[in-house]
Please model this.
Amino acid sequence: MDIDKLAEVVEEMIIQHDYPGFEPRGLKLGLPGKLEGMSAKTFASALGHQSVFVKLAALRWFQERPGVAKAHLSSILGLIDSDDEWVRKEAIRTVEKIWKLPAHASGIVSKGLADESVEVRKASAKALGKILKRSVTKDAAVIDALRQAAQDKDVEVRFKAQKALRNIGEFVV
Model:
C-alpha cells in the first residue's frame, strides 16, 4: 500500500538525519524519486495518518502543489486543530498557498492567532495577510482577530499582524 511505503520512507529519512538536537518535525527534505509516482489521493490519506511526521510530509507535499491541495482543503483545514503545533503551523502554511479560497477558510486560519504556540500565531498572521489580500470580501471577525494579534505579547506576531493589516489597508496607527 502506498501510504505504508510513504510512512516507511519518512521514518527512514528521520533516522538517517538524526543527530543531537535534531527536531524531526522540522525535516523539510524533498521526498525521494521513488515516491514521485504516488498519487494525490495517497498524500490526502497521509493527512489522516497517525504519525505526525507523515502528516507533515503530506502537508509539505501539498505546499508545492497548491492547485492539488485545494481539492483536499477540508482535510487540510481540519489539521489546524491538531494536537501538534508543527502540524497546525504547516496546515496554515499550506492553506496560505491556495488561491481562491472559500470565505470560511480565513476564519479557520484566524483561530491560529490565539494559539499557545508563537510559531503558529506568526504563521497565521502571515497567512491571513496573503489570504485576505487575494480575497474579494474581508471577514470583519478575522480583521478584528488580526487587530488583537497586532497587540500580541510577542514582537514578531505583532509585526506580522500589523503587516497583514497594512496589506489589506486596515492598519491604523
Remarks:
- The first helix runs from residue 2 to 16.
- The mean pLDDT is 93.
